[in-house]
C-alpha cells in the first residue's frame, strides 16, 4: 500500500537531479491541473485530427458520391469503430503498466512491457483482420443494413480489414508515447496522417472516381505510413532510458497487462458495441434516416474527443503518481479533470444548439433529404445537453483504470451498454427513432454513478 505524500513537499537533491534529467516528470511534479492540461491538449488535438479520417470519408463520399454512399460508410462505422476501440483500449490498458514502471524508474521492465504489448497486439490484429474479411458480408446482413447500400458497405469493410494491423500498431504505439509523457509525438503523426488521408480521399474520389473504395484505400495508406514511422521514432526515444538488456516478450508481463487491458478494451468499446447493436434498429428506418444518423455520429465522435482525452490523461496521471507514491495528487488531478470536463461540455452544448443545421449539412450537402436532416439535427440538439455526463464518467473511469481498480469499472460499463441496447430495441420500434438517443444519457449516468461510488470507497488507493 502506498503512503500519502504531500504533492508540494520539497524534493530531495537526488530526486531533483533526476527530474532535471527527465523532461517527462511533469505528471508527477507540476500542479495537477497544469499537468493534466499540458498532457491532454496534445491528445485532444491528436484525436481531433484522427477523427478527420472518418469525417473526411463521410463528408467526401456524401457530397461527391451521394447520400447512399454516406449511408454505406455510416453502416460500416459502428463495426469499424469497435476495432478502433479495441486498439485504443488495449493500448491505454497496457500503457498503465508502462506508466507505472516509468514512474518507478524501472526502465528494463518498462521496455519489456512495451515490446510485449506491441507484439501481442500485432498478432491479435492479424487474427481479427482475417475474421473480419471472412464474415464482413454476414455481419452487415445481420445488422439489417439496407439492401441499396449493402455492397458498398462490404467493399469498404474488406479494405479496412486489410489495414487492421497498421491501425492496431499505430494506436498502441501512440499509447506508449503517452505513457512516457511524450503526448506531442502522436500529435505530430496524427496531423501528418490526417492531412495526407484527406488529400488521398479527394484524389481517389474526385479524380480517380473510386467511390467508397477510394476513401478506404486512402485510410489504409495513411495509417500504414504513420504506423511504420511511429515505430521507428519510438525505438529512437527508448535509447534515452539506460538499462540492462530487457528482452522482447514476457508472458508474465502480458498477463499483468491483460488484467488491465481487457476491462479497458471493454470500456472503450462499450459505446461502439452499443452503437453497432443499436445500428440495426436505425437501419430498419431506411437509408435516409441512416444517412442522417451517420452524420450525427461523426459529429458526436468529435464532441467526445476532449472527454476521452481528459479521461485517458487522468489514467496516465494516476498510474505515474501512484508509481511515485503520491496518492493525494491523484485526488487533486481528479477534481481538476471534472472542472475541465464542465468547461468543454458547455462549449459543446452551445455549439450544437446554435450550429446543428450547418454541421449536419457538412455531410449531407444542401440537397440532403428532409428525413436525413431531421434525424441528424434531432440527435445533436438532444445530446448537446448531456456531454458532461460522459466526461465525468470517463474521468472517474480513467482514474480507476490508472489505479488498476477494474472490477466495478467493468460492471459500470456493462450496465451502460445493456441499458442503451435494451432501451433502443424495446422503445424505438414503438415510439420512434428518437428513443435511440434518449437511451444514451441514461446509460452514461448509470455508468458514472457506479464508477463514482467505487471511487468513494477509496479501494483504488490499495490497488496500485
Distance between the termini: 8 Å
Q: In DSSP terms, counting alpha (H) and pi (I) runs of 4 or more, how many helices?
A: 17
From the spread of the alpha carbons, the general shape counts as globular
Described by strand count, sense and barrel closure, the largest sheet is: none
Q: What Rg is obtained from the alpha carbons, in whole angstroms? A: 22 Å
Order of helices and strands: HHHHHHHHHHHHHHHHH
**Low-confidence runs:** 1-22
Oligomer: single chain
Record field, number of beta strands: 0
Helix content: over 70%
**Structural classification:** mainly alpha
Number of domains: 1
Structure report:
- The structure is a single chain.
- The protein has 464 residues and is mainly alpha-helical.
- It has one domain.
- 84% of the residues lie in helices and 0% in strands.
- It has 17 helices and no strands.
- It has helices at residues 13-21, 26-29, 32-64, 67-103, 107-142, 150-162, 164-179, 184-207, 211-238, 251-283, 287-323, 327-364, 370-383, 387-403, 407-431, 434-456, 460-463.
- It starts with 12 loop residues before the first helix and ends with a helix.
What distinguishing features does this structure have?
single chain; 464 residues; mainly alpha; 0% strand
Draw up the topology in text:
Elements: H1 13-21, H2 26-29, H3 32-64, H4 67-103, H5 107-142, H6 150-162, H7 164-179, H8 184-207, H9 211-238, H10 251-283, H11 287-323, H12 327-364, H13 370-383, H14 387-403, H15 407-431, H16 434-456, H17 460-463
Helix pairs in contact: 3-4, 3-8, 3-9, 3-11, 3-12, 4-5, 4-6, 4-7, 4-10, 4-11, 5-6, 5-7, 5-10, 6-9, 7-9, 8-9, 10-15, 11-12, 11-13, 11-14, 12-13, 12-14, 13-16, 14-16, 15-16
Amino acid at each position: 500500500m502506498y503512503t500519502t505524500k504531500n504533492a508540494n513537499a520539497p524534493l530531495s537533491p537526488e530526486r531533483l537531479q533526476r527530474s532535471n534529467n527527465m523532461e517527462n516528470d511533469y505528471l508527477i511534479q507540476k500542479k495537477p491541473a497544469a499537468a493534466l492540461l499540458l498532457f491532454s491538449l496534445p491528445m485532444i488535438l491528436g484525436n481531433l485530427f484522427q477523427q478527420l479520417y472518418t469525417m473526411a470519408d463521410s463528408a467526401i463520399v456524401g457530397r461527391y458520391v451521394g447520400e447512399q454512399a454516406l449511408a454505406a460508410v455510416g453502416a460500416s462505422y459502428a463495426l469499424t469503430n469497435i476495432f478502433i476501440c479495441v486498439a485504443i483500449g488495449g493500448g491505454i490498458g497496457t500503457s498503465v503498466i508502462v506508466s507505472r514502471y516509468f514512474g518507478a524508474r524501472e526502465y528494463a521492465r518498462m521496455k519489456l512491457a512495451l515490446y510485449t504489448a506491441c507484439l501481442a497486439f500485432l498478432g491479435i490484429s492479424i487474427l481479427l483482420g482475417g475474421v473480419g474479411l471472412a464474415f464482413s458480408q454476414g455481419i452487415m446482413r445481420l445488422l439489417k443494413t439496407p439492401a441499396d447500400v449493402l455492397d458498398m458497405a462490404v467493399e469498404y469493410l474488406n479494405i479496412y480489414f486489410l489495414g487492421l494491423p497498421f491501425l492496431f500498431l499505430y494506436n498502441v504505439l501512440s499509447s506508449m508515447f503517452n505513457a512516457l509523457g511524450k503526448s506531442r509525438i502522436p500529435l505530430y503523426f496524427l496531423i501528418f496522417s490526417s492531412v495526407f488521408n484527406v488529400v488521398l480521399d479527394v484524389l481517389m474520389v474526385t479524380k480517380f472516381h473510386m467511390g467508397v473504395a477510394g476513401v478506404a484505400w486512402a485510410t489504409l495508406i495513411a495509417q500504414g505510413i504513420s504506423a511504420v514511422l511511429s515505430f521507428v521514432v519510438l525505438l529512437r526515444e527508448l535509447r534515452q532510458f539506460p538499462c540492462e538488456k530487457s528482452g522482447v516478450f514476457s508472458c508474465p508481463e502480458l498477463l499483468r497487462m491483460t488484467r488491465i487491458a481487457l476491462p479497458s478494451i471493454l470500456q472503450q468499446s462499450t459505446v461502439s458495441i452499443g452503437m453497432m447493436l443499436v445500428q440495426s434498429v436505425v437501419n430498419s428506418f431506411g437509408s435516409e434516416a441512416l444517412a442522417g444518423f451517420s452524420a450525427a455520429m461523426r459529429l458526436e465522435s468529435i464532441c467526445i474527443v476532449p472527454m476521452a482525452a481528459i479521461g485517458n490523461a487522468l489514467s496516465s496521471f494516476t498510474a505515474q503518481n501512484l508509481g511515485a507514491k503520491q496518492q493525494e495528487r491523484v485526488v487533486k488531478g481528479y477534481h481538476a479533470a471534472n472542472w475541465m470536463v464542465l468547461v468543454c461540455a458547455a462549449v459543446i452544448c452551445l455549439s450544437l444548439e446554435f450550429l446543428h443545421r450547418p454541421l449536419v449539412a457538412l455531410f449531407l450537402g444542401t440537397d440532403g433529404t428532409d428525413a436525413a436532416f431531421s434525424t441528424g439535427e434531432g440527435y445533436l440538439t438532444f445530446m448537446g445537453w448531456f456531454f458532461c455526463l460522459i466526461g465525468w464518467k470517463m474521468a472517474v473511469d480513467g482514474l480507476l483504470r490508472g489505479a488498476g481498480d477494474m472490477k466495478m469499472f467493468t460492471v459500470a460499463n456493462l450496465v451502460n451498454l445493456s441499458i442503451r441496447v435494451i432501451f433502443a430495441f424495446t422503445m424505438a420500434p414503438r415510439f420512434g427513432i428518437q428513443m435511440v438517443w434518449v437511451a444514451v444519457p441514461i446509460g452514461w449516468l448509470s455508468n458514472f454513478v457506479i464508477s463514482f461510488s467505487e471511487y468513494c470507497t477509496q479501494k483504488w488507493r490499495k490497488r496500485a
